[in-house]
Write the structure tokens for this entry.
Amino acid sequence: MILNQMSEQPLMIEGEGVILRDYQPEDEDLILYWFTHGEWRHFDAPWEGVVDSFTPEKEEAFRARFRENIQKPRETPRKKFIICLADSTPIGWVNRYGSDRFPGVFYLGIDICEDQYLGKGLGFAALQTWISYLFHKSDAHKVELHTWSLNPRMIRVAEKLGFRHEGTERELIEWQGEWLDRVHFGLLRQEWLDQS
């Protein structure tokens, strides 16, 4: 069973050169910008649609959803955080999601949305901080992440963090003339504790 408490207090967690913090109302324009800019969109299932701009109607719908979500009580453990540099500059996000069928497992996501910060170890630091937080604030047994063969940076980060390769769905989707594999990684709570 996952601990699931509500909290109204904003949360900020310091990691190695990064800060994870709650989404704030003033993030609205930035999040909208990120959804339409950045290299990350070409590695996070781009076949679902890389958007360079929104129509006025889609932008207003996006803003309305953001405002509605920001008003909801925050769960513990959180489902998402903004990734910031130590000086509070926002650069991306982390998230988690789950399945009722496997309540002891969190599936993780991360995107560095500001291109100038890619390849600098910040994704590793953010994901390391995120995993520590999730294991500390829940009784989750396992965290998983899935990525695509077109994203070697994410594969290296998973391996460096101690995730184990749990399988590959070979040539699952064709994208721009190339067949791509979906790669699965998992990390058990005890494995994380053993390396900490």
